[in-house]
């Protein structure tokens, strides 16, 4: 399929992060003839020249750098109406906040949008069609960003639930580790289907208690992203689970990956929040115990299968 631009937007876009996702997003914007500047902290390039004239600043860096980067941007001169977009899927270990909460707290007078959906960057790099969500409480800001990325290979929907959109993308990484374990143990299609299906109410239960709207989790950024990540060996989080099922050490798996698998850190932060807030999260608990080396993959499966019997729909939000 040959991508063709859908319009000629002139808003200046700066993408922070030249990893797999930042690079794919920059290419998507260029397909649409959106002028793009990029920056990577690894390059040592100065930040100010690429952000001072930007109308939209999109962060596609790993969770571990978000708080520091937001604080750094706060010290720089920026356009008074610049829109911040976050494409990071994670939770901050220090504060347990999502990336959009960090950006919004740092820049309370600016619109903040979340970009999230079933978007495996390797497929996007191949020019395969995909869809995503841009979510912001400021619908006009979401529509501005929608225009920057939309093309006939990338269909962008807007949504006004940034937190739900972001939490769907973040929490499914934990579930993708679990499904990677399931597939690595060769437990079969029935087991995988059961796990992915039970993962959805777990994500919804946690996600709504943390502030997302229930219906968002049935959409592209929720169920859609869960299906992408839990069914594709391209997913790095799935690969973490798969490797654990093969008896590999977590550190070795992460080193072999050589890029970000946010689900590991997300599990640790999530379990803290789940514990503090008394939320039932049986799959996430088993992933946590497995990542911490407290149980084997087989014991994690047994723990899920031996839980108390109950009706199917007793714990939806
Ligand atoms: N690759 C994918 O298919 C997708 C990734 N994402 C999310 O995007 C985020 C980035 O993922 P990838 O680009 O795939 O990872 P990557 O490992 O390819 O790149 C990580 C990026 O973060 C930057 N970075 C790391 N530590 C930093 C720090 N302390 N300060 C500033 N920058 C720092 C790196 O320089 C690099 O640009 C993750 O949260 C991931 O979950 C979201 C959707 C799709
Ligand atoms: O978020 C993603 C797809 O939407 C990328 O998944 P991984 O980080 O597991 O590779």
TrEMBL record:
Domain of life: Bacteria
Pathway note: Membrane lipid metabolism; glycerophospholipid metabolism
Active site: 172
Subcellular location, principal: cytoplasm
Binding positions (substrate): 89, 236-237
Stored PROSITE patterns: NAD_G3PDH
List of residues binding sn-glycerol 3-phosphate: 89, 117, 172, 225, 235-237
Enzyme Commission number(s) from the entry: 1.1.1.94
Keyword Lipid biosynthesis applies: yes
Family the entry assigns: Belongs to the NAD-dependent glycerol-3-phosphate dehydrogenase family.
Protein function: Catalyzes the reduction of the glycolytic intermediate dihydroxyacetone phosphate (DHAP) to sn-glycerol 3-phosphate (G3P), the key precursor for phospholipid synthesis.
Name of the protein described by the UniProt record: Glycerol-3-phosphate dehydrogenase [NAD(P)+]
């Amino acid at each position: 399929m040959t991508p063709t631009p859908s319009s000629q937007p002139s808003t200046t876009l700066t993408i922070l992060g030249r990893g797999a996702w930042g690079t794919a997003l920059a290419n998507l914007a260029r397909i649409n003839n959106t002028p793009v500047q990029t920056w990577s902290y690894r390059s040592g390039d100065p930040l100010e020249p690429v952000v001072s004239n930007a109308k939209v600043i999109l962060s596609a860096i790993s969770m571990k750098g978000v708080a520091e980067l937001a604080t750094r941007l706060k010290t720089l001169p920026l356009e008074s109406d610049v829109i911040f977009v976050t494409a990071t899927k994670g939770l901050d270990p220090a504060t347990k906040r999502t990336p959009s909460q960090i950006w919004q707290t740092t820049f309370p007078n600016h619109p903040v949008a979340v970009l999230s959906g079933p978007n495996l960057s390797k497929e996007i790099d191949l020019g395969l069609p995909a869809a995503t969500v841009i979510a912001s409480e400021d619908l006009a800001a979401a529509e501005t960003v929608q225009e920057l990325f939309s093309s006939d290979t990338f269909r962008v929907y807007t949504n006004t639930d940034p937190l739900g959109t972001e939490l769907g993308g973040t929490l499914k990484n934990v579930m993708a580790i679990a499904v990677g374990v399931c597939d690595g143990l060769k437990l079969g299609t029935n087991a995988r289907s059961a796990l992915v299906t039970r993962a959805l109410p777990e994500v919804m239960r946690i996600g709504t208690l943390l502030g997302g709207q229930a219906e968002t989790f049935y959409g592209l950024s929720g169920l859609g992203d869960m299906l992408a990540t839990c069914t594709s060996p391209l997913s790095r989080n799935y690969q973490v689970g798969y490797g654990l099922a093969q008896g590999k050490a977590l550190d070795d798996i992460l080193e072999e990956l050589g890029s970000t698998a946010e689900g590991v850190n997300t599990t640790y932060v999530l379990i803290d929040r789940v514990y503090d807030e008394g939320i039932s999260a049986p799959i996430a608990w088993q992933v946590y115990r497995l990542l911490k080396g407290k149980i084997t993959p087989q014991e994690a499966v047994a723990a899920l299968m031996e839980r108390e019997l109950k009706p199917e729909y007793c714990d939806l939000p």
